[in-house]
Write a structure and sequence with these properties.
Layout: H1 2-5, E1 13-14, E2 17-18, H2 23-36, E3 40-42, H3 44-53, E4 58-64, H4 71-86, E5 90-94, H5 97-103, E6 115-119, H6 139-150, E7 159-160
Parallel strand pairs: 4-5, 5-7
Antiparallel strand pairs: 1-2, 3-6, 4-6
């Protein structure tokens, strides 16, 4: 009787470490690596311009919530997220634009960080294949994809709390 009432609990793991690397830390790692590799488009309008010309090059679209009362920015973000979902680009909403600036080391700039596109890793330019090589993704990027897949199709994208440091 007791054994029937016990429910097995699945432990979340990222890169083989049981809950030691929360999703906020994964986002931080992916953003820093992509920044070093020059695979980012920063800003809402530059992101929209990039996607209008190349919707297959983005892996993640990281956004922050629009400031209260800014309906124009909110509308642009909603349309951008709908476009991303339609084109199989993973959307991630984070809690703070200032934390994004800190993560990327741009605290003193007035550049808009409300949206950041993370592009796929660069592939061999001499290859004939037009396919994206998913083996070139890091384990952290794969963990982030798993997180996004688990939240795919939800009407509201969960807001991820980024680490303070």
């Amino acid at each position: 009787m007791y054994n029937e009432s016990v429910v097995p609990v699945k432990v979340e793991s990222f890169s083989g470490m049981a809950a030691k690397s929360p999703i906020g830390q994964c986002i931080k790692t992916v953003l820093r690596r992509a920044c070093v590799e020059k695979r980012l488009t920063v800003g809402l309008l530059p992101a929209i311009q990039y996607l209008s010309n190349n919707c297959n090059g983005a892996l993640f679209c990281v956004t922050t919530e629009a400031p209260p009362g800014d309906s124009a920015t909110h509308m642009q973000e909603v349309l951008l997220q709908a476009f991303c979902v339609e084109n199989d680009i993973y959307c991630i909403k984070v809690d703070s634009e200032s934390k994004l600036k800190k993560i990327l080391g741009c605290c003193k700039t007035s550049v808009d960080f409300s949206c950041i596109l993370v592009h796929y890793p660069y592939t061999d330019p001499f290859s004939d294949s037009q396919e994206i090589d998913l083996t070139s993704l890091t384990d952290t990027e794969k963990d982030l994809i798993d997180y996004c897949e688990n939240n795919w199709g939800h009407s509201q994208i969960p807001v991820v709390k980024l680490p303070e440091k």
